[in-house]
Amino acid sequence: MDINVLKSLLVRNTTKIVYLIMDGLGGLPDKETGLTELETANTPNLDSLAEMSICGMMDPIAPGITPGSGPAHLSLFGYDPLEFAIGRGILSALGIDFPIKKGDVAARINFATIDKEGKIIDRRAGRISTETNRRLCEKLRKNVKLNENVKWFIETVSEHRAVLVFRGQNLSGKIEDTDPQVVGKKPLKAIPLEKEAEYTANIINDFISKAKAVLKDEDKANMILVRGFATFEKIESMKERYGLNCLAIAEYPMYRGLARLVGMDILKIPGSFEELLQIFSEHYNEYDFFFLHVKKTDSYGEDGNFKAKVEVIEKVDKVIVPEIMKKSPDVFVVTGDHSTPYLLKSHSWHPVPLILYSKVCRKDSVKKFGESECTKGGLGRMLLKDFMPVVLANALRIQKYGA
Ligand code: ZN
Predict the structure, then answer these.
(1) Residue 115 CA, ligand 1 centroid: distance in Å
(2) Tens digit of each residue's pLDDT (9 = 90 or more) over 214-253
(3) What are the C-alpha distances in Å from 297 to residues 27, 32, 120, 173, 315?
(4) Does a structural domain hold residue 75?
(5) pLDDT category of residue 290 using cuts at 50, 70 and 90
(6) Is residue 254 assigned to a domain?
């Protein structure tokens, strides 16, 4: 859908839209039972929601393409993930509440260990503590002086991970990673991927060699590896695109970063499902759109832990779903950003099951929330990026096209 046409059709309404996103929700069948993680989970509330709703299967990027959580979330929010390519460095910076500005170049850092010959022996520096990371960032801030007059920032994420941001004129994020992704090799030079990035690459190489000198006496974290370089370009907010005032409630930083990128408000950080619901409930009257994010489904999928992923889904069903239903939202969407099957221990290309409940939806025959059932759902199989107009329509926020 052309965004300008969509914008021209928007109408004001006071309807409420809730997105409950279980990260990496989609799975694969257990060899013995033939049921996926979601199908195995006992989910009476989601099942009865599915029964009242229209269901379907979503391709987060395109059929066959395994998504990262960043592009998959942009798709969830109705942005074409191929048009709005957001680099990992930018996501990391957004995720730690770094006040990133247009034109900044951000990248992710790993503190790492190199041997006397300069070869990498541990890409994560023995997973140093977050406190050590903070000390190292402070040490770098005090001691690294760059040749060029650009501002730079280094901020701790956690353990061995940090974010590096450069701010100045004419910077480019089109730079190759310095992390070779394997041990036994030397870190790579920052190589520009276009002519305009040569200046930035020089600054980065200057930074890395000075950082290495500052860190040389550290026993574990004596080097940095830098990857995911990206330039920050501000993108249109969900308010501008859809006229929605949006609130994000997410425990993990990257998802708050993604939400902030599309202009959602973030008021508090929930430490539990109960806190998530409390924030939701307290601010329900103030917003049109709510993005509630649950991370652990993805984490346990990545661990290959079938049982734990099932338990998280059951807890979401038991604790979160009934409280949302109590508010009687006009539109309630339950889905994932992508699949993370326990069998693959990673994200995968498989489409994701989705429930769209609304007071005016044309409900289908699906009576249970799961991959096999949703495949038979009334929404069929869609590209996730195309789904937002369906949501807005169900929220009675789109007028007729043409006379
Ligand atoms: Zn994800």
Answers:
(1) 35
(2) 999 999 999 999 999 999 988 999 999 999 999 999 998 8
(3) 10, 21, 33, 32, 11
(4) yes
(5) very high
(6) yes
**Measured in angstroms, how far is the CA atom of residue 340 from the centroid of ligand 1?**
8
* 23-78 pLDDT, tens digit each: 999 999 999 999 999 999 999 999 999 999 999 999 999 999 999 988 999 999 99
- How far does residue 23's CA lie from ligand 1's centre (Å)? 5
Helices 296-303 and 306-315: angle between axes, nearest 10 degrees: 170
Q: Which helix (H) or strand (E) holds 41?
A: none
In a 13 Å sphere around the CA of 340, the CA atoms on its Cβ side amount to 28
Structure tokens at 182: 């394997």
Question: Which residue among 202, 231, 260 closes a domain?
Answer: 231
Cβ burial, residue 377 (10 Å; 0-12/13-18/19+):
buried
Q: What domain range includes position 338?
A: 3-84+235-394
CA–centroid distance, 338 to ligand 1, in Å, is 6
Domain count for the chain: 2
Q: What is the CATH number of the domain that holds 110?
A: 3.30.70
Which sign does the torsion angle of CA 306, 308, 312, 317 carry?
A: positive
- What distance in Å separates the CA atoms of residue 134 and residue 115, rounded to the nearest whole number? 23
Distance CA 220, CA 76 (A): 40
